Amino acid sequence: MFSKELPVAIGADHAGFEYKDALAAYLRDKGFQVKDFGTNGPASVDYPDFAHPTAQSVASGEAAFGILVCGSANGVAITANKHAEIRAGLCWNTEVASLVRQHNDANIICIPARFVDIQTAISMVEIFMATAFEGGRHANRVAKISCN
């Protein structure tokens, strides 16, 4: 349940840039603004260089939510989760994309480009955007996540 008033922050490394571009185009077609933090080609890059600015954009409130893509999505998830205000969830199917929103109030979805096809990635983003945090017993757990 994200507003179109703020842009979506998106970033990827060399393994995920094609998915990033496809997801950004999909979001723009749906009327969302997109803040693209790169990368924009297949040359080898370091995923933290793109995950940190994407996460910072979400953490600061400049972006409604974020999308990060790399080969396994582990590197970008680990990096984004270093930001205290971020709850980045690694998703490989729509059920997990729903659960990271419902139970963990995730504000960044991390997608493993080497393990899901682009249609699955789009479907996961759709579910992620449309799913609300359940609160209740999950709110107490989420409140205990940050070390700050």
How would you describe the overall organization of this protein?
- With 148 residues, this protein is an alpha/beta fold.
- The chain has a single domain, classed as Ribose 5-phosphate Isomerase B, Chain: A (3-Layer(aba) Sandwich), CATH 3.40.1400.
- The protein contains six helices and five strands.
- It has a five-stranded parallel β-sheet with strand order 2-1-3-5-4, with helices on both faces.
- The mean pLDDT is 94.
Quick recap of the structure?
With 148 residues, the chain is of the alpha/beta class.
Keyword list:
148 residues, alpha/beta, Ribose 5-phosphate Isomerase B, Chain: A, five-stranded parallel β-sheet, 6 helices, globular, RpiB_LacA_LacB_sf, RpiB_LacA_LacB, Ribose 5-phosphate isomerase, isomerase, ribose-5-phosphate isomerase activity
